[in-house]
Amino acid sequence: MPRLLLAAVPFPATARAVSGTAPGDGPGEGAAEALTRLARALRDAGHEVVHAGQGVDDGLVVAAAVQEDVEVVVLLAPASYDAGELAARLAGEDPSDGAETTVLVVATTDEQPAQVVRRVAAGTAVAVADDTPGDPLGGG
């Protein structure tokens, strides 16, 4: 199983304006609970999970991915998050050193942990259709 880095980018203030709370402000409300659910699901699937935390920026994600020598970065982000720059920075690692490319998987709090686990196992950042009932990452 690949070693992976799990992190969450900051969620925009609009999340607070719409719901009255920001992700992570209460039970079932956000990123903190979603990270916990996702970390548990990934560990249960046999992955070694390095937890980078909540509210981290792209620079920290790239630095941690290099330092921890991970194969996959799982990033919890709002649906509006543009992962293009982060993906480019992760792909910018020196391929001549024999290291494999770091795969970026972006998840939202609306996704079920099982969906993300399957995407990680498949080694792809492409969304997988899933009709499996269960709790979404956000618990709602």
UniProtKB/TrEMBL annotation:
GO terms for molecular function: cobalamin binding; metal ion binding. It comes from the Bacteria. PROSITE patterns: B12_BINDING (PS51332). Gene3D superfamilies: Cobalamin-binding domain. This is Uncharacterized protein. It comes from Nocardioides marmotae.
